[in-house]
Amino acid sequence: MIHAERGQKAARKLLGAFRGVLVSDRWGGYNFFWGVRQICWAHLKRDFKAISEAKGAVGKIGQELYGLAKKILKMQRRARDGTLQWPTFQRRMVPLIKRVEALLEEGARSQCALSGKCRRILKHRDHLWPFVQDPRVEPTNNRAERIARQGVLWRNAVRQQFRHSE
Question: Among the listed ranges 22-26, 52-56, 72-76, 90-94, which one has the minimum average pLDDT value?
């Protein structure tokens, strides 16, 4: 279902009584959801790439976060396809989780415009790692986004047409 609006009211209507795993971006409209929520690591990777383009210490933090995101996603794919045992994946994730969170905390303390982005990511700390606990949880919403993409493009075109006709 594609809803004409993008607010919490629309999110509630779309999700209804859904109780599965919600893999989403960090949009606040989903904050009402009490089931298992996984923040999409493809979105995080893009955010880390943007942070990496900053100057100075924050840029270095972003570069490391971006590298860690690539490493984490590659390792998860290996665990999913069976070329890395699940317990080994979980064990190897422990120091990576600690490092990602430490870097985000360091970025959040920095005195630059991007510190807010790190703070907003940290607000979702509980939703960053469900894919590490449960092999059935996907770390990204790429598959769902590919499926919904045409509907979203259609909705945006209709909105644009409506705006121009006013």
Answer: 22-26
DSSP string, 14-30: HHTT--SEEEE-S-GGG
Close Cβ partners of 126 (under 8 Å, ≥ 6 residues apart):
none
Q: Is the pLDDT reported for residue 146 higher than 50?
A: no
- The whole-model pTM stands at 0.77
Q: Residue 38: what are its φ and ψ, rounded to 5°?
A: -115, 125
Greatest C-alpha distance within the chain: 58
Nearest to 140 by CA among 48, 67, 66, 44: 44
- Per DSSP, the three-state class of 13 is helix
Q: Which residue ranges make up each domain of the chain?
A: 8-152
Structure confidence by residue, pLDDT tens digits, 100-138: 999 999 999 988 877 889 999 999 999 999 999 999 999
